Amino acid sequence: MTDVKPQPSDIEIRDLTMAYGSSVIQRDLNFTINEGDIFVIMGGSGCGKSTLLKHMLGLLRPHSGDILYSGNSFFQASESEQGAMRQRWGITYQSGGLFSAMTLAENITLPLELYTQYTRAEIADIVAYKLALVGLAGYQKYYPSEISGGMQKRAALARAIALDPKILFFDEPSAGLDPISSRLLDELIVQIKESMGATVVIVTHELPSIFAIANNSVYLDNISHTMIAYGNPSDLRDHSTEPVVRQFLTRSAAAAIEEKS
């Protein structure tokens, strides 16, 4: 029998406990995000999804445990090593996070000016290309306030991929979007992921997005304060032994709206 080669991991969460003071948010988290995954962090309101994302981005230090990128500890790395790891990441925030006083071109130019040696002409070409990738060709001179919410999300994605990252992080990417715009954004995330060969990590409540694009996930429970499910969302919906996980993944649209409010 031929041995099956294990899939390379991009991110490993090892024995991670997150806490604010004496208040434990989540404990003993252990899971792996493989290269090329579209991985969803999910769970009920207040379970610590966004807190986990902040730990993964190095914005918060764990109470205990570690996070490894390509086998290397982030929190044991030097400041320069952490900076090198971060340059492999692209991040979009729930609000989009665009600088309102800058045009779309200026927003996307910023990381290129900070972290590359490209000339102005080369940067302009890259900006035009990234905007075209997200369906915003010709919008360089527009300000965020001059475009729709869905277009702002796409512009934020263009900035996130400016440095050709290997890992893309999304915090509630579909928040505030209508169903059609949300579906188009999901399709764009998949297209960008495939064209760049990136790994995608998403915090989201949106069931249509979860089932449309995710191939792996973790469920954080806000009662036991630990993970109680890990795997493909469709498999968890159909076969999880945890009733709360099946309930979360089969809830109605009305329940989902109430949960977010």
Overall description:
This protein is α/β, with parallel strands linked by helices. It has a domain of 147 residues: 3-Layer(aba) Sandwich (Rossmann fold). Helices cover 39% and strands 24% of the residues. A six-stranded mixed β-sheet has the order 6-7-8-3-9-10, sandwiched between helices. The longest helix is centred in the C-terminal third of the chain and has 18 residues. The radius of gyration is 19 Å and the shape is globular. The N terminus and C terminus are likely disordered.
What is the arithmetic mean of pLDDT? 91
Total count of helical runs of at least 4 residues: 10
Using the 3D structure, state the CATH architecture of one domain: 3-Layer(aba) Sandwich
Shape: globular
CATH superfamily of one domain: P-loop containing nucleotide triphosphate hydrolases
Concise summary:
The protein has 261 residues and is an alpha/beta fold. It has helices at 49-56, 79-86, 104-115, 120-133, 149-160, 179-196, 207-213, 233-239, 243-250, 253-260; strands at residues 9-20, 23-34, 38-43, 64-69, 72-73, 89-92, 167-171, 199-203, 216-221, 226-230.
Offer a few descriptive terms.
261 residues, alpha/beta, Rossmann fold, 6-stranded mixed β-sheet, 4-stranded antiparallel β-sheet, 10 helices, disordered N terminus, disordered C terminus
Topology of helices and strands:
Elements: E1 9-20, E2 23-34, E3 38-43, H1 49-56, E4 64-69, E5 72-73, H2 79-86, E6 89-92, H3 104-115, H4 120-133, H5 149-160, E7 167-171, H6 179-196, E8 199-203, H7 207-213, E9 216-221, E10 226-230, H8 233-239, H9 243-250, H10 253-260
Parallel strand pairs: 3-8, 3-9, 6-7, 7-8
Antiparallel strand pairs: 1-2, 1-4, 4-5, 9-10
Helix pairs in contact: 3-4, 3-5, 4-5, 6-7, 8-9
